[in-house]
Amino acid sequence: MAKAIRTRDGSLRTRRRVALGVAVALAAAGLAACGGGSGVPTLTWYINPDVGNLDASLGGQATLAKECTDAANGKYKIEVQMLPTDASAQREQLIRRLAAKDSSIDLMSNDPPFIAEASTAGFLAPVPEADVKTFTDGVLDGAVKQSSWDGKLVAVPFWANTQLLWYYKDVADKAGLDMTQPVTWDQLINAADETGTTVQVQADKYEGYAVWINALIESAGGSILEDASAGADAKVTVDSKAGDEAAAVIQKLANSKAANPSISTATETEALAGFTASNGGFMVNWPYVYADPSTQPLRDADNLGYTRYPETVAGEPSKPPLGGISLTIGAYSKHIDFAYEAAACITNEEHQKEYMLNSGNPAARSAVYQDPEIRKAYPMADLIEESIGEAAPRTVTPFWTDVSAALVDSFHPPSAVNAQTTPQKATQFITDVLHGKALL
Fold first, then answer.
1. Which residues of 269-297 are buried (b: 16+ CB within 10 A; e: fewer)?
2. Tens digits of per-residue pLDDT, 181-193?
3. Is 310 within 8 Å of 141 (Cβ atoms)?
4. What is the reported pTM?
5. What is the pLDDT of residues 373-398, one digit of tens each?
6. Fewest beta carbons within 10 Å, which of 17, 302, 342, 440?
7. Integer Cα distance of 406 and 433 in angstroms
């Protein structure tokens, strides 16, 4: 059996060959394409897996598809097809099929870092100008920004995401940390060392590690790329004061007693397991962990705390990670108008609330965070909304797949990161990859 693990944004991935996922999905799509014989157009929505603790009969994307089919009153119906569980494998499958001008792809649940690539290639149907207001009014700025490329909205914000700093109140008290004030990574590592606890992060050789590195650099006032619109000619800026600060955090944690012994293979799932262990102390992770059954005893004990993402540099407000899912419409769909109508239904306030309550994935619409049911289910609703508003996306570029892989390769394993040399190494390697002088 493949090993299922949490990935960023609360989705799941499995260590399974991409080829198998592609083959299964292609076969499923072939069956779906044979449907719709009744004369009612069938829209196929390719979805990423909902979080593992979600009741499949309630609140997931398949349920939203059914509800929006009912709301269409016979104009169209929506069927779902499951994408692979790994975000990179999802991107690979969709890009391959869109490149083949596959008309069976109507709607897609898309990871925002890969949207610019698909848009630049002409694989996405343009968002109708008349619908832009519907898709952006009342939507958090971060969700709109990561659904846009080249000055235009190219995707429909579905749900947004960010990471919080989770901690045990008794551990923070023992370490003398005032968690009502901003805390730094340096303070957390020292506190965990002093109390014999851990600081849990995501540093496996995958996209989740790129999320951490990016957040550290952005929080220090830097960025991975400058002038991303220049494509492969964008300036790589990891070798900077901000890059040095970010590398110093990773170096200190990875070589301290506060690190997870398996930090180099830690994903969201392993981080949560380490946090709930007897020596857990602090963790950065997505809000889905609050809905995870394993944290229920912590909530009952009233010992679980949460606050804003840690600062890389003391006194410089952190820029938490930004994630989520946006809906895109295939350029070769035979039902583009209906697909955008369905997207409006799927992403309306009512459905975003339903999805957040049942999946743990935060809404992209601001009004959802004021709903009494949401505020009861998520006492940190204001913090989530604020963090999404202050979050920094991973650099929006058509070349993010290459940039991310080269970045992670340069910073892995975490124990080998050196603040004096790693940022320069990463800058050179990313530049060489973008210019075709090095292979991943």
1. bbbbbbbbeeebbbbbbbbbbbbbeebee
2. 999 999 999 999 9
3. no
4. 0.88
5. 999 999 999 999 999 999 999 988 99
6. 302
7. 7
